Amino acid sequence: MSIDTATAARVAKLARIKVEDDALPALAQEFNTILGFIEQLNEVDVEGIEPMTSVTPQRLKRREDVVTEGDQQDKVLKNAPDAREGFFAVPKVVE
User: Fold this and answer.
1) 73 occurs within a structural domain
2) Count of structural domains, the chain
3) pLDDT digits over 24-79, tens only?
4) Pairing with 11, which of 24, 32, 44, 73 sits 20 to 30 Å away (CA)?
C-alpha cells in the first residue's frame, strides 16, 4: 500500500492537523515508512507467543484491599467550593 499526497492531506484533515501543501510529500513519505515498518512486523511469526505488557517479566506488587483512614467526608468536602448533601456540587453542563 502506498500513500500519495492526496491521502496524506486527507489524513491530516481528519486528524485536524494543518499541513502546508509543500510539506505534504514529506508527510506522505513518512506515512509510507510507517506502513513499511508495519508490514515488516506482520511478517514476524508470533504463533504460540503470549502477549506481554513489558519486555521484562514483572509481577505487580499487591497489597491487601482494605479501607484505611475512612470516614473523612467532612475533611474532603471542606475544601470544595460548593458541596451539597455530602457531595461535590458542580455546574450543570448537559441540557
Assistant:
1) no
2) 1
3) 999 999 999 999 999 999 999 989 988 887 888 778 888 888 878 878 888 989 98
4) 44
